[in-house]
Design a protein that fits this description.
By secondary structure, this protein is of the alpha/beta class. It has 14 helices and eleven strands.
Length: 375
């Protein structure tokens, strides 16, 4: 929602995992801004992982699918006016659905339900499906999802095992776009992410061998070497499995920013407010907050970053720019209050900032400026 009065702020936060959604945070920032006499454009964002449903919006749909450990799960997805479906793999195959890392079985956890969710969206008439990665319980390389798509007769393997005797595979006939929140490659997903899902060192080694073998199977059946695709390790290799059957992998934040027309919305703002639960090195590697700040810098728009906590050693030197203010809720309020009263703390920080900056005009755009995170 955008008001016509000036000055104008764009509130474009990511979620604070476990304490506040991006939608709630954008509303909180907007409330503080309007109380200070600013108009506000609420633009909650995501990096392609959890939160992409709320960021992209659409009509709510629910489908019962197989959870990561085989139990039935009621998985929400969205359908937009332009025949695009938005699916979050975490709603079907997420770590929360498995009871967390302590209850998860990392060797058995499957993405079958995510494949069922994609199939349901296609059966419902979607001509384009956006699949958000992140928050997964799985390291199955997307085998479960591909199996579900096979069962729905949406894909079928070919035969690339004998040169000159190819049987062409049947791949997805609708556009499937995978919004990746990491750049990890396929086989590396085991070592990079499986420990977070409860895997022991021995299980990580086994999962890596499984992914190596599965990559060979995908190349044989679909003619795609997923090991060479940047981001194919997202969601425990689910991104690679979907790429094998015809999906396109893109940077999650870039997709969200394009869908929301975020650059244009920022270009007319006097201030951008963004934030996330923890600002660290990953913030500047394709994550939402780094992306928002880079868009703002390209337009010469000042930025306020509100984070739950800040790893100051990870903040790049160009974030010392006076047009970028970074506030840590933990430093400002203490860890206990920052966790228990996240939105209230965010509202206080935004109100305090605007109270001291409302009379400062926006600086003219500086052509050719590199901006934060553009290294």
């Amino acid at each position: 929602m955008t008001c016509d009065s000036e000055p104008r702020v764009v509130a474009a936060p990511d979620k604070f995992r476990g304490t506040a959604t991006a939608v709630d945070l954008a509303a909180t920032m907007a409330r503080a801004a309007r109380s200070a006499g600013w108009s506000c454009d609420e633009a909650p964002v995501a990096d392609g992982g959890e939160g992409i449903l709320e960021a992209l919006g659409g009509d709510r749909r629910v489908t019962t699918v197989r959870g990561p450990l085989g139990q039935p799960v009621e998985a929400e997805w969205r359908e937009t006016a332009d025949d695009t479906a938005v699916v979050e793999m975490a709603r079907a195959s997420g770590l929360d659905q498995a009871g967390g890392a302590e209850e998860n079985d990392p060797l058995r956890a499957s993405t079958y339900g995510t494949g069922e969710l994609i199939a349901a969206a296609i059966a419902g008439g979607a001509r384009r499906v956006v699949v958000g990665m992140g928050g997964s319980a799985t390291t199955d390389g997307g085998l479960g999802a591909v199996s579900a798509l096979r069962a729905a007769r949406l894909v079928h393997s070919g035969d690339y095992s004998r040169p000159g005797a190819h049987r062409a595979p049947v791949k997805l006939t609708v556009e499937v776009v995978v919004a990746c929140d990491v750049t990890t490659r396929f086989v590396d997903a085991a070592e990079r992410f499986a420990p977070q899902k409860g895997a022991s060192d021995a299980q990580v080694s086994l999962l890596r061998r499984r992914l190596e073998r599965l990559a060979q199977v995908y190349e044989r059946d679909f003619g795609i070497d997923v090991r060479e695709i940047v981001g194919s390790g997202a969601a425990g290799g689910l991104a690679g499995g979907l790429a094998a059957v015809g999906a396109t992998l893109v940077g999650g934040f870039d997709l969200v920013a394009t869908e929301l027309d975020l650059a244009a919305r920022i270009s007319t703002a006097d201030l951008v407010i963004t934030g996330e639960g923890r600002l660290d090195a990953e913030t500047f590697s394709g994550k939402a907050v780094g992306g928002v700040a880079a868009l703002a810098a390209a337009e010469g728009v000042p930025v306020l970053v509100v984070a739950g906590e800040v790893d100051t050693d990870a903040v790049p030197g160009d974030w010392a720019d006076p047009e970028i203010a970074v506030v840590s809720l933990v430093d400002r309020f203490g860890a206990e209050e920052a966790m228990a009263r996240t939105t209230e703390c965010v509202e206080t920080v935004v109100a305090e900032y605007l109270a001291t900056h409302s009379d400062q005009p926006r600086a003219p755009r500086s052509e050719g400026r590199s901006g934060p995170g553009r290294r």
